[in-house]
Input
Amino acid sequence: MKLQKVVNRLQKLHPKEIDLSLNRIINLCKKLGNPQNKIKAISVVGTNGKYSTIQVLYAILKEAGINCNIYTSPHIKKINERFIFNNQELSNQELLKLLEEVEKVNDNQSITFFEILTAAYFYRASKYPENINLIETGLFHRFDATNILKENIASIITSIGLDHLDWLPEKEQTLEKIIYEKTSSLLKSNIIVSKQSSNKIVDLIKNTISKNQSHKLFFNEDYSYSFKENSFFYYEDKFGGIKLPNPNINGQFQLENITTAIATLRSVKEIKVIDEQIKLGVTKIQSIARLQEIKKGKLKDLVKNNRLIIDGSHNPLGAKVLNEYLDSLDCEKHIILGMMANKNHKEYMSFFKNISSLTTINIPNQPNSIKGKELKDKLNNFKNIYYKESIIDAIKSVPLKKNDLILITGSLYLAGEVLNLN
Output
């Protein structure tokens, strides 16, 4: 396939997968005519909830008749997912043409894969100057390739926690350093801060952005929600309240992402949305591999009437909110787990208290993942723990009873393999 050949070439332009610096992408974008200066963007930074928050923004903006461009990473099933323009994912041929054009301009200069993809996104996005760009930052923000915008209309700070510590110096692997990297270089516009897991984190964020002259909104101070029975929840900010239907995605933590998206859209003067568009939007959110229930397909057939859910969470904060969702369900839960080698496997699984069985597996096509047997040995404190080589073998091995649930989790890469296999 021609597209894959170009992708393979781009992946070889730099010896490192990640090399935190802005020089290379600045130089390439200058050759491309600085397309990043020609777009209207909402930047989304944080540890967890970035993708989900973007999908909520997207769903509401579509209801309002506003076209969007979207840049997210990593992709789950195919690289095209990273490139949404005018509410449409680029086809293979369109993406091939875009990447070849940017590759030619780059002229074989050293640049990381993520950086050249980001430059390609900006270049294409500049063709739609009236669209709203929803941009997810990568690893951190201060030296992330997406952080070359001179202005934006808003920055969203989603939930922040410990993750990707191996990319920081050993003495700087702290929450304070992560918050600094993610929030210290935010642009002056609007900053909307989602619910955080502790008051300490909120205080650290406030301290880091204290000199930033943006208009700032904080969850529970400037906007909030309350969960009601009878299939609705209530959102409130300085503009008033909205009675909203329950969203079409699982997990109470998603209400935090949803309310942050609503707060953003209601506070940004450049965007006009009305209550009815918000109400419709929250029922049409498309969220891949975030508490996604598989309702049909090859793998669903294996579990018959039992529920099969996949979730790409891979850090302690993600495990915490995932377990909160599991605890709200009155059923037996079985986890199938695959993780990357550089994650804190024991801490991740420490949040799951009421699990009937745990099955570790290998993540296909991921040389940087931990082998399932090694993962099983590390988690030997679990009573009913097993190892199976493949996803299908693991699902078949779970002793399911009526109403039992299987959750496959631990990595977005694993989630992608599951979806492709299904």
Q: What stands out?
A: The radius of gyration is 21 Å.
